[in-house]
Design brief:
The complex is a heterodimer of chains A (about 600) and B (about 280).
Chain A lengths: L3 H52 L3 H4 L4 E2 L4 E2 L2 H30 L5 H13 L4 H20 L6 H37 L4 H12 L1 H17 L2 H6 L17 H8 L7 H30 L5 H12 L1 H33 L5 H5 L4 H5 L10 H32 L2 H16 L2 H17 L9 H25 L3 H9 L4 H30 L2 H6 L18 H11 L3 H36 L2
Antiparallel strand pairs in A: 1-2
Chain B lengths: L1 H26 L6 E7 L4 H14 L3 E8 L1 H10 L4 E4 L5 H7 L1 E15 L7 E2 L1 H9 L16 E5 L4 H9 L11 E3 L2 H10 L3 E6 L11 E2 L6 H6 L5 E9 L4 H11 L4 H6 L3 E2 L2
Parallel strand pairs in B: 1-2, 1-3, 5-9, 6-7, 6-8
Antiparallel strand pairs in B: 3-10, 4-8, 4-10, 4-11
The chains are: A mainly alpha (about 600), B alpha/beta (about 280).
Amino acid sequence: MRQTQPCRQQSTRFCRQLFFDRAARALSCGAGFVSLATLAAIFAFLALLSLPLFTQGQWDSVLQTVWRPFEGRYGIVPMIAGSLILSCSAFALAYPLGMGVCLFVLGPGGGLLRRATMGVVTFMTAIPTVVYGFVSVFLLVPLLGRAFGGRGPSLLAAVLTLALLVLPTIVLFLHGSMRETEERTRLTSAALGFTPLQALLLVVLPGSAAGLRTAAVMGWCRALSDTLIPLMLAGNAPQFPDSLFDSVRTLTAHIALVVAMDNSSPAFHSLFACGLTLFGVSLAAQAALRPRSATSGPMRGRTLGLLSFMAARPACRALVSVWAVLSAAAVLASVGALLVFLLSRSLPVLDLRLFFGDTPILAALLGRQPVWDGLFAACAGTLALVILASLMAIPVGIAGGVALFQYLRGPWAAALRFSANALAGVPSIVMGLFGFSLIILLRHTVAHEANTSLLLSAVCIALLVLPYTINATAQSLDTLPVDLRLLGPSLGMTSWQSLRRILLPAAGRGILGGVVLSMGRAAEDTAVILLTGVVAHGGLPRGLFDKFEALPFTIYYLAAQYQSAHDLAKGFGAALTLLALTVLLFCIARALQGRMEREWKH
Amino acid sequence: MKRSMHFAALAALFLFTCTAARADMLQQFAGQKGKIDIAGGTAHIPVMNEAAKRIMTVNPDIRITVEGGGTGVGVQKAGEGLVDIGNTGRALSAEEVAKYGLVSFPFAVDGVTVVLNPANAVKELTAAQVQDIFAGKITNWKDVGGADAAITLYTRDEASGTREVFWEKLLKKGAVADKANVVASNGAMKVAVSQDASGIGYMSIGFVDATVKAPLLDGVEPSQANATSGAYKVARKLFMNTKGEPQGLTKLFIEYVTGPECTDIISKAGYIPLK
């Protein structure tokens, strides 16, 4: 009797541990498949709602070259062309620039300037898209107008801005893979007597072929899926452009502009065909990326020939160096101009009145008096949105990342990884369209009171940032040293115990960093909330089912339709506020991830 | 003397009843709670905002959200029940009324005018010239008496009621060239044309200010007075619409905007109140 007691205790404890282990496994795997389910749901919605085009035989009217809905012509071909032309032009500009920046950063010396350049490029990822757009409207468009005559928005303005927007994506992918190759081959290159530039051209670039491709695909996808830049800068005419100064409309901008059509009209259904096209392209890009990057070896053939040709000639080498310096200078100058312009226009107008108007601050903060003419409600709305979306995305995302790292193997892991990457590639306007159509469907079926609201926006934003959290968690766990991973099992811990007591605390900073980054993404997104519940004027949201104001939308709205100098000042103030918020989140994330890296790097 | 005394007394009485009525209208919102969501016509936004501001200042428990999007959004969202009031810058079609069961409440008269950049030398256009310009047949300002510069067209998206009125009454349903830039609201049209020296667009007369110029159309000045008198033909009414007869707060709001107390808001926004 005396002996069995502790035995039984031990066995119940063991049972409990086993139960926790099973539960954790089930929950995290379940969470992991939220992304897969979302992907399937988005596809189902887009397909379902574009189906009437097929069944009612209007498919050929969508595949026309003319969009004139009042004549029954719903052609989306000009928009497809617009999307392709804009994204390819921006990519054609950004990729060589990005390559130049990378060569500059990795080039001989490794001085402070090079590190600073990389720092600036990384910082660019923290600048919200709508801020790029806003500054371009007031800086770039007038400049282009002065240089080329008094035209307004144009393809050129959108191309330049979009190139700057996608540049950091390209540089970060390029730099990551090239630096890794460079470190791996440094001794070899030195032994062969290569100069640093020759090493870059002859060893590093050919050795990073897969990374170059990934950077290209990711950069192009980012350009294709952006909504705000074309919407604000490209002019939105549904035509085939003849020159860089013409106006174009992209698929993404088209969805944002036309979603107001009658729900049963072919025009409305054609939007889902647009969404389906975008969705298909981003999915295909992901699919194309995966197997190749896994199997492809170093580059061969003509490209390699060209590289060795260049490396062998001093003139070409000098040209490459000049190009690298020029690209870095161009990027630094553009970002500098953007920041200086924004600060010089927004700092003078920044005061409490800008946020609270004429309302007493305490009364406004307590929600006793509505704020007119101030940014307070927009700030509060954005904050509420970020918190709500994080509350949903973080637990699910971390659990999904854990499942990917610990519990899933083989095809299931591959499926989850693919779905997370594919979900990350879904354009945010498509996510917004999904949310909007979800509400329409709910209203017509089970929940007749369902409406666009803070909750809907938060859910859609959460789904948008979910893949970032999943990937950040899985990556942070993956980078832990092997002995830490083995420590738990060697002590006889269950996998849940090992995760909870050893691995998660060790990877905590990295995970947190990823979480904070995704909060920054949630704060800046405009395209999703555009379709799911944001309003221009509404005051503080009182509950989950209220519509709300948000900073990025306020910036977008005021850029296009400020009615007074005060409105314009408000726009600049809002841009600076949003930038400050995303930069703050970005800095916290970097600090956390940096510390995690230092802790576990050998 | 006595007559003038009488008159003064009458005037005072009239003023008193007026202010009493004013107070009454806003008083009705006291003690109420809830929200009104408004979306649609962008010409309506200044009026809606000011009315919302007055009501919410008297009673912070009421929450009124105002969203633009254009007439199409007003019809779609009110029709689907996504908002309480959907604004339209044109009368609803019989089809829209039948499909959604919308009820309309007009509150103001507004003209739609062609607008140019103030730097443009052109002071007058004929309807035929405007039609040719928007169809893309006239592409240079020198052909209509301006400087030698290519014309940039600005039009509105399909959801715009202003676009429909302009297209029906001025363009006579003629084509708008595909190359025209598309902007999403009256406010955005004003900003776009004010920034483009060779731009031409069209918008609500209520939005015209010093940053844009409204040329004479066939010799008639596009003003709200001319729109009301009928001398300027490209005019419409501004409507609020509800799905079925309005109830509760929504009903109060509509009574407030169409009532005597809102006329100053409507006039200040640049429209002619219907009452």
